[in-house]
Design brief:
The protein has 531 residues and is of the alpha/beta class. The protein is built from 18 helices and 14 strands. This is Isocitrate lyase.
């Protein structure tokens, strides 16, 4: 017996015990509503998706071609449409996640209005967006299952064999997928990090990404002025997230430890070293210092530390921050990553200034000398000029191998005049294969784009507005949007149904029977799209 039919039988048995008071309850309708609401709580989702992510990580370890991907989503509808599209075009949601970007929460979801990526937005807006995303994904499940129930009813009405449709219902693939959720630098101290992590997990997050910047001085990873914290401070926050997972019963929750050290030249404080070569000592070894030979070398209020048997004073800026030595970013990244993995992190995130497989691979290989299974979540960031970066990479490679590059101006390679050239074609091919190449050669398990839907919303709106308020008028919408939706099979062309009108009609019929006032009659203009 199928699970669906078993549920019907179970509800029928329960109904029989109610002495006739449930006579108007249809066991099959109850079974349908149960199937359409597989995940009752956010914790159900977190536990389910954590299992998916762990299996995907194991699969990647065995075969680097099995990397995973996600796009950043700033609204539940965006996440829903993304997963509907993935399932429609790829045939499965496997290997596809959602990314919740702190940048987009700040820019698009704050009650203060658009804000920079500096942890100034309301911290609860992060957990609220996770809940919203999963609400929309569950609605996508309910909608598609509703279509299967209609198919089942049609087969029943014709006297056909229902087993094939019941199998579709029992084997339905959910749109619920893992979310990698950005907690920034923890929004405060380790207790604040723990409290917010709990909210995020309760909303459904199985994976939390945390960075090693100072919480109250946090900057976007692709801007200047980044300040990192000592390892001890960062590890305390990793511990806080792990305790939150364990407390809530998500024992296999995933923690992504992000390091911004490659582009960060400052630290907030000098940690206390208690033994030679400990973490604090290793961190302090990167500080930019000058020798202290006597008290005369010091000004009032200056700090002195002992390093390698000598007294030195760290370079301190007027704001009290300390500067690192130049060209130590890579070494600090490696130490950050090894330390994080050895203290509870599951995945790494190295924020880089450009998308370069060789650069990433060099760092990952150094990390893997100590942690062989190290793997990354990588930000395929829109902050990179991908066209210019890859054209310049090809230019440099050609120049190194002796190929004639006299027809190209390296500084102007972004120019449209180069679009049809051999160099541009090779660069585009490298962009196309970047994720597969980096997964194979640089240990990248998960590729994401932080804020793609921010840019697609801007571009599509610009194109529509340009035509609609210009000469095209209504044709701009019809030709550029609606006609494409119809011909490309987008479900949201029937926006009333996408917003839940069909589901609502079904429920009204369950609850009220023939007295139900439904929206889907002959005068519903959505019927015009049944062509």
């Amino acid at each position: 017996m199928s699970n669906y039919k078993q549920d019907i039988d179970n509800f029928a048995s329960l109904k029989a015990t109610q002495n006739g008071t449930w006579d108007r309850i249809d066991p099959e309708y109850a079974a349908r509503m149960k199937v359409q609401n597989r995940f009752k709580t956010g914790l159900d989702i977190a536990r389910y998706t954590a299992g998916i992510m762990r299996k995907d990580m194991e699969a990647y370890d065995a075969d680097p071609s099995k990397y995973t991907q996600s796009l950043g989503c700033w609204h539940g509808f965006v996440g829903q449409q993304k997963m509907l599209s993935v399932k429609k075009h790829q045939g499965t949601t496997a290997g596809s996640y959602l990314y919740l970007s702190g940048w987009m929460v700040a820019a698009l979801r704050s009650e203060f209005g658009p804000l920079p990526d500096q942890s100034m937005h309301e911290k609860t807006s992060v957990s609220s967006l996770i809940e919203e995303l999963y609400t929309f994904l569950r609605q996508a499940d309910a909608r598609e299952l509703g279509d299967l129930f209609k198919e089942l009813d049609a087969v029943k009405a014709s006297g056909g064999d229902t087993r094939a449709v019941e199998a579709k219902i029992d084997n339905f693939e959910t749109h619920i997928v893992p979310i990698i959720a950005d907690i920034d630098a923890g929004f405060g101290n380790e207790e604040a990090t723990y409290l917010l992590a709990k909210k995020m997990i309760e909303a459904g997050a199985c994976c939390i990404q945390i960075e090693n910047q100072v919480s109250d001085a946090k900057q976007c990873g692709h801007q200047d002025g980044k300040v990192t914290v000592p390892h001890e401070d960062f590890l305390a926050k990793i511990n806080a997230v792990r305790y939150a997972f364990l407390e809530l019963g998500v024992d296999d929750g995933v923690i992504v430890a992000r390091t911004d050290s490659l582009g960060a030249g400052l630290t907030q404080k000098i940690p206390v070293s208690t033994s030679k070569g400990d973490l604090a000592s290793q961190y302090n070894a990167f500080l930019k210092t000058t020798p202290v030979n006597s008290v005369a070398d010091l000004n009032d209020g200056e700090m002195v530390i002992k390093q390698n048997g000598e007294l030195v004073k760290p370079e301190r800026l007027p704001n009290g921050l300390f500067r690192f030595k130049e060209n130590t970013g890579v070494d600090r990244v490696v130490l950050d990553c090894v330390t994080s993995l050895q203290n509870g992190a599951d995945l790494l995130w190295i924020e880089t200034e450009k998308p370069h497989v060789g650069q990433i691979a060099d760092m990952v290989n150094a990390i893997r000398e100590q942690e062989p299974k190290a793997k990354l979540v990588y930000n395929n960031s829109p902050s990179f000029n991908w066209t210019l970066n890859f054209r310049q990479q090809v230019f440099d490679n050609w120049q190194e191998t002796g190929k004639d590059v006299s027809a190209y101006d390296r500084a102007r390679l972004m120019s449209e005049e180069y679009d049809s050239t051999e160099l541009a074609a090779e660069a585009d091919a490298k962009i196309q294969s970047f994720q597969a190449d980096a997964a194979r050669e640089a240990g990248i398990f998960h590729h994401l784009i932080t804020l793609p839907t921010y840019h697609t919303a801007a571009l599509s709106t610009d194109n529509l507005a340009k035509g609609y308020f210009g000469e095209d008028g209504m044709l701009a919408y019809v030709r550029g949007v609606q006609r494409k939706e119809i011909r490309e099979g987008l479900a949201c062309v029937k926006h009333q149904a996408m917003a839940g009108s069909d589901l609502g009609d079904t429920h009204k019929e369950y609850f009220s029977g023939e007295a139900a006032l439904k929206a889907s009659g002959k005068d519903n203009t959505m019927n015009q799209f049944d062509v």
